[in-house]
Design brief:
Elements lengths: L1 E7 L16 E2 L2 E2 H8 L7 E6 L3 H8 L5 E5 L6 H6 L11 E6 L7 H14 L3 E7 L8 E4 L5 E5 L6 H4 L3 E10 H7 L24 E5 L12 H21 L3 E2 L11 E3 L4 E2 L3 E4 L2 E3 L4 E2 L3 E4 L2 E2 L4 E2 L3 E3 L2 E2 L4 E2 L4 E2 L4 E2 L4 E9 L2 E2 L4 E9 L1 E3 L4 E2 L4 E3 L9 E3 L4 E2 L4 E3 L2 E3 L4 E2 L4 E2 L8 E2 L17
Parallel strand pairs: 1-4, 1-6, 4-5, 7-11, 12-14, 13-16, 14-17, 15-18, 16-19, 17-20, 18-21, 19-22, 20-23, 21-24, 22-25, 23-26, 24-26, 25-27, 26-28, 27-29, 28-30, 29-32, 30-33, 31-34, 32-35, 33-36, 34-37, 36-38
Antiparallel strand pairs: 2-3, 6-10, 7-10, 8-9
The structure holds uridine-diphosphate-N-acetylglucosamine and magnesium ion (MG).
Uridine-diphosphate-N-acetylglucosamine binds next to strand 1, helix 3 and strand 10.
């Protein structure tokens, strides 16, 4: 029987942030979400999250984790004190407790799995995950013999000069026998540099403690400050890009691009330099994104080209080109074979198949039929200062340059709107609508007497 506890009650003083550290995010997911995801496969009997600093906010963010039990640690007197909070609720539990620090976001499920397996085989009271780090500054040092038995863990701040030279570090991931741990937890003292109760002190108190050294030291990177946050982001981005390159995505200049965990790409997608893919995105076959593009929570069909543009919360069909310098905003739905050109903004609007908005336009709260041609500088005036109103434009209609379509407005099929018009009344199908002052021409104006 396995229970899992993630420690997430600390403030994260070294982050110098108004938010709890475990809610900092990496590639679109918070640190603590990443840790919780890494233990999902184990299907534990019970899962606990120790919360304390800004507990409400942390809980709110993680409500979608089914079966997660929140345990309040108040005040936050260290990692040992955090695990002590489980004593009442876990009374009588007979099995292993896997403890994970909430600020170790790059762990792979396979590594945790290996830790649990090794622990079960060795019949130790605790097995901890360790790594040999080139720069172990800040980490607890693990003192072990050649056969993997651990004598104890000493925190960086409590190490003497000789102990500091040991680069075998504690990852903050432990598999304990609960029965043995629950007997030791009440004995932890606060006799150390930080006057806190350290979970790491328990290690020396067990009859049999073992460790498993992680193959990839990057995996156990802890996040205590912004520099470590940036290093983890760097490692994660490299992992994501390598994954997608292995899956057949071209990156012209990989290190200039960032991805989120929740994006997926079809075949022969090309990501040009300075392109960022955020949130949950589906990018179809043969798309070309960038240079200089940001997409967030989008679904793009096949052969979509997006150049120097921003596309957010939008859905785009096949064979569409967007940009340069276009902005598709939330609830933009763009049909197949559409073109969205330079300096065009589309919000909460749908465009039917083959429609074009090529230059300098704002299309908001609008339903466009198919094969509509929106002339340069056409604007849907959707806001009367209080409410937003919709514009509907039928199939095959065209608007001349610099038209203003004042909503609410309905324009039929195959309508032509004259250039420079301000249209305030509905227009029936097949009509020409012109709404502007007639041109006046005065001949020989230059020769007039003054
Ligand atoms: C801890 C370990 C250290 C290890 C390192 C790995 C201890 C004493 N030290 O140090 O040996 O090398 O992690 O990254 O455990 N937390 C609580 N309640 C508290 C204090 C902390 O829930 O009262 C949580 C934090 O939110 C965090 C985790 O425990 O997620 C670790 O705390 P942190 O202060 O980051 O410990 P480190 O100094 O990194
Ligand atoms: Mg830490």
């Amino acid at each position: 029987m396995l229970a899992v506890a993630v420690l997430a009650a600390g403030k994260g003083t070294r982050m110098k942030s108004a938010f709890p550290k475990v809610l900092q995010s990496l590639a679109g997911a918070t640190l603590v979400e990443r840790v919780l995801n890494s233990v999902r496969n184990l299907q534990p009997e019970r899962s606990f999250l120790i919360v304390g600093y800004q507990a409400q906010q942390v809980k709110k963010q993680l409500n979608h984790f089914k079966g997660l039990e929140f345990i309040l640690q108040e005040p936050q007197n260290g990692t040992g004190h955090a695990v002590q909070q489980l004593l009442p609720t876990m009374e009588g539990f007979d099995g292993e407790l896997l403890v994970l620090n909430g600020d170790v976001p790059l762990l792979r499920a396979a590594t945790i799995d290996a830790l649990v397996q090794v622990h079960r085989k060795s019949e130790a009271d605790v097995t901890l995950l360790t790594a040999r780090l080139q720069d172990p500054t800040g980490y607890g040092r693990v003192f072990a013999d050649a056969s993997g038995h651990v004598n104890g863990v000493v925190e960086h701040k409590d190490c003497n000069a000789e102990q500091l030279s040991n680069n075998l570090t504690n990852a903050g991931i432990y598999c304990f026998n609960w029965q043995a741990l629950s007997a030791i937890l009440p004995q932890l003292s606060v006799d150390n540099n930080q006057r806190e109760s350290y979970l790491t002190d328990s290690v020396a108190m067990f009859a049999r403690a073992m460790h498993l050294e992680a193959d990839d030291p990057n995996e156990v990177s802890g996040v205590n400050n912004r520099r470590q946050l940036a290093q983890c982001e760097h490692i994660l981005q490299q992992r994501l890009r390598n994954h997608w390159m292995n899956e057949g995505v071209t990156f012209v200049d990989p290190t200039s691009c960032t991805l989120s965990e929740a994006c997926s790409f079809g075949c022969d997608v090309v990501i040009e330099p300075q392109t960022h893919i955020r949130g949950s995105c589906i990018v179809g076959d043969n798309c070309r994104l960038g240079p200089g593009t940001m997409v967030e929570n989008v679904t793009l069909g096949k052969r979509v080209y997006v150049v120097q543009s921003v596309v957010r919360e939008a859905k785009v069909g096949d064979d569409v080109s967007v940009g340069p310098f276009a902005h598709l905003r939330p609830a933009a739905v763009v049909g197949d074979r559409c073109r969205i050109g330079n300096f065009v903004e589309v919000k909460k609007s749908s465009l039917g198949t083959g429609s074009k908005v090529n230059h300098l336009s704002y299309i908001g709260d609008t339903t466009l039929g198919s094969d509509v041609n929106i002339g340069a500088g056409t604007v849907t005036a959707n806001y009367d200062g209080v409410d937003k109103h919709r514009t509907v434009i039928g199939n095959g209609s065209k608007t001349g340059a610099n038209s203003v379509l004042v909503a609410p407005l309905s324009i039929g099929d195959n309508v032509t709107v004259g250039a420079g018009s301000t249209i305030t009344n509905d227009v029936p199908s097949k009509a020409l609508a012109v709404g502007r002052a007639r041109q006046m021409t005065k001949n020989n104006w230059a020769n007039r007497s003054i």
